[in-house]
From TrEMBL:
A family per Pfam: 2TM
Species annotation: Frigoriflavimonas asaccharolytica
Top-level taxon of origin: Bacteria
GO cellular component: membrane
Upper classification of the organism: Bacteria, Pseudomonadati, Bacteroidota, Flavobacteriia, Flavobacteriales
Swiss-Prot/TrEMBL keywords: Membrane, Transmembrane, Transmembrane helix
Record-annotated Signal transduction histidine kinase internal region domain positions: 157-235
Bilayer-spanning residue ranges: 7-25, 31-53, 74-96, 116-134, 368-388, 394-412
Record GO terms (molecular function): phosphorelay sensor kinase activity
Alphabetized PANTHER family for the sequence: SENSOR HISTIDINE KINASE YPDA
Domain 2TM: start-end pairs: 356-430
Protein name (database record): Histidine kinase
Length: 434
């Protein structure tokens, strides 16, 4: 409010001094004070009147959520309010202060002045409304960007936390196997150690990736299966039946390794009752299935393996990990992704996309308001020139109507039915593609 009052006083002083200097023949102190008072009257009435109207409309209708309603009610209310304000101020100025004839207030030169000042008031009001809209739009854009950044950072932190579980998890399980082999078969333990070092190097290389090709994951799983065969020999059998056209698509890295560990950990395997593990593809999923030979006594599980995969997929895709269990088998289905761009990456870039969309919308609105401002400024000037140079031929109607039609089309494109129809058609196409 302090800024509004100080600006209003400055404008009043500048306007009053200007009219006193260039349009007053008797430059007395009395006329200077009268000129300053009249300038203050117009400025204060227009500023507070339009300011209160703008604030009232902002409390009723949001520029962002109720844009069309806000613009429609704003235009109607602005015209009505400014007509009343102008006529009121002009009546005080011309009839009370300058003692003009009240019968000629709406006709002749005073009628023309009324029309000109109404247009100037509408111009000022349009600028105030445009500024209000820009401020609200910037606030909404900044809020959306902050929210999207928070979502992206939260998802990224959660994903990194899940990936960091893989190192100690793999190392812990491998050391358990190695500990068992040292007592059972020292020579196998040496081969296991050599193989484990190669596999662990692969774990370190792949764990930082969000997605990896099915082919790479299958090759790693086969190597890891050889490592398991070193310990279990013919107690565990593996079968791979992955379709050729699935190999270049994507899964989360180390998912098969975690699921293979899960099979070994929760089932017993002997040469008399071997554990059969089958890895195959079906209907866009990679399946890991084993015959159910559940251990009767198990150590308390840390719950890292399967839950880790479920959570990572929930961050990367809308497709869910499926778990099926019966008396004969246990099966896990993980989605095979066709696109390497994950949902989380889209979230990371959504703040930039939101900002770009907001910036484009602001530019579009700035273009319309610039057009409206020019119209409100130029047309009254043309009317003034027409009336005071050749009042017999009113040629100002041609540019006023021609430009007005163009301005209406611009408004329709910016706020009207055409914009909604275009956005609906784009959304419809996107929904079909999805």
């Amino acid at each position: 409010m302090k800024i509004r009052i100080s600006t209003m006083l400055l404008i009043s002083f500048a306007t009053g001094t200007f009219f006193f200097t260039f349009f007053t023949s008797d430059r007395s102190i009395e006329n200077l004070l009268l000129s300053l008072f009249v300038a203050f009257l117009y400025t204060s009435v227009f500023t507070f009147g339009n300011g209160l109207l703008n604030d009232f409309l902002n409390t009723k209708y949001s520029w962002i959520e109720d844009t069309k309603t806000r613009i429609t009610t704003g235009i109607i209310a602005t015209i009505l309010v400014n007509v009343v304000l102008v006529l009121g101020c002009n009546y005080v100025n011309f009839i009370w202060l300058q003692k003009a004839n009240p019968a000629q207030f709406l006709s002749g030169s005073m009628g023309t002045i009324n029309w000109l000042i109404i247009n100037i008031a509408l111009l000022i009001s349009a600028i105030l409304h445009a500024k209000s809209f820009m401020d609200e739009w910037k606030k909404a854009s900044k809020k959306e960007i902050v929210e999207q950044k928070f979502i992206a950072k939260s998802a990224n932190a959660q994903f990194e936390s899940l990936k960091n579980q893989l190192d100690p998890h793999f190392l812990f399980n491998s050391l358990n196997v190695l500990s068992s082999l040292i007592d059972e078969n020292p020579s196998q333990a040496q081969r296991f150690t050599a193989s484990m070092s190669k596999i662990y190097r692969y774990v370190l290389e792949q764990k930082d990736k969000e997605l990896i090709t099915v082919e790479e994951e299958i090759e790693f799983a086969k190597t890891y299966c050889e490592l398991l065969k070193t310990r279990f020999e013919d107690s565990v059998n593996f079968e791979f039946q992955v379709e050729e056209n699935m190999l270049k698509k994507f899964v989360v890295p180390l998912s098969l390794q975690l699921l293979l560990e899960n099979c070994i950990k929760h089932n017993f395997a002997t040469s008399g009752k071997p554990l059969f593990i089958k890895i195959y593809s079906e209907n866009g999923y990679l399946l890991i299935e084993n015959n159910l030979q559940q251990r009767e006594q198990m150590k308390e599980s840390a719950g890292i393996g399967l839950s880790n995969i479920v959570q990572r997929y929930s961050l990367l895709s809308k497709l869910n990990v499926s778990i099926e269990k019966s008396n004969e088998f246990f099966r896990v289905k993980i989605p095979i992704l066709t696109n390497k761009i994950s949902n989380m990456k889209i979230q990371k870039n959504s703040d930039a996309i939101a900002y770009q969309n907001a910036a484009e919308r602001v530019q579009e609105l700035k273009g319309f308001y610039s057009n409206l401002t020019s119209y409100c400024l130029v047309i009254p000037t043309l009317i003034f020139i027409n009336l005071f140079t050749s009042s017999n031929y009113l040629w100002f109607w041609w540019p006023m109507f021609g430009w007005g039609i163009g301005l209406g089309m611009h408004a329709l494109k910016t706020f009207g039915v055409g914009k909604d129809w275009e956005e609906k058609q784009i959304q419809k196409i996107l929904n079909k593609k999805q």
